[in-house]
Amino acid sequence: MLTQLVDETFAIADSEATLRLKFMENCRYGRGLFTENSFILVEGEMTEEEAFNVHSITLPPYESRKQTEACYEHANWLGSQAVTMSSTVLNALSAEFSEVSMVLISDVHLDNPVVFQGLKKLFATLETKDTPLAVVMMGSFTSKPFSAKGESADAYTDGFKKLGNLISEFSNLSKWCRFIMVPGPNDPVHIHALPHAPLAKLYYEGLSSKVSNAIFTSNPARIQIADKHIVLMRHNLLNKVLRNVAIPLPLKAASNPVTIQKYYVRTVIDSGHLVPLPLNAQPILLARDNALRLHCNPHLLVLSDETPAFSTDYKDTKFVNPGAFIPVSPSHSINYFTYLPFQDILEQRYLPIDD
Predict the structure, then answer these.
(1) What is the rounded distance in angstroms from the CA atom of residue 321 to the CA atom of residue 349?
(2) Are 268 and 276 contacting, i.e. CB atoms less than 8 angstroms apart?
(3) Which pLDDT belongs to residue 137?
(4) I need a surface site. Which of 78, 124, 154, 227 has the fewest CB within 10 A?
């Protein structure tokens, strides 16, 4: 584990010993973001001064889903009743439901009238075309931090009432589609530490009374569609990870946003943890830390963030940050992703709000 000593030098440590690190001038840095308390692999040589001259540093080796499942054949990674299917059943389902999709949107601010315009346009499109199996709506559901006092709480519950009224206007969606709601940083989760519990029912009764298929989940949450495992999380992590990088990135990588995004994805997946940060940077409920682990790696990892939308593939995992539902660019449009689990296809789409 990478740690920082009192004199601000770095070391690797375990429960029994600490070994000071000295990074050599020609040290090779692996592709990743190295934060304090993260697990790393270093290569080098010991010195007589009881220090370790580091010639290369990298993240732990990637472990594929197949490798993990081979070692833990009967493990249930979803924490609920496991669903297993034979290859024959999967092939039949894939042939029949190849166009089944899931829609991903984030920063659905229900106190913003423009968001409701965008939702109405999106729902009208989904109603007339192939109705998705699910619409994942990720917070925050308010543009400002929630306050339990005064008009803020009333406005928050009114937002879900309006959403319920809107969804009920579309018969196919309200009957066949599931609406999966994941809370965000501004929502009333009442604790800064991760993971977060689902929203309290008193906030969304106006929606659930209209839409029986609305599901309010914890943050993070896990979904299984056939043999595909999907992890959902909404938290502003990328910039926080960058602020807490212990070993600065090479200049070429630090100046390229795409490279930073790929390093971030690699760090999360190779670390096997959704929050590769020290506890002083992001508190974690240690008794619930298992909810933040990524063993085994999902087929789709959705880490919604305040940063612009992007998606990429890393090994056998697809990664997406859906970005804001109403993006800065292109203007007067809505931004969303669709995922086709039986084809394992992820696509970003835009719709103009005003035709």
Answers:
(1) 13
(2) yes
(3) 98
(4) 154
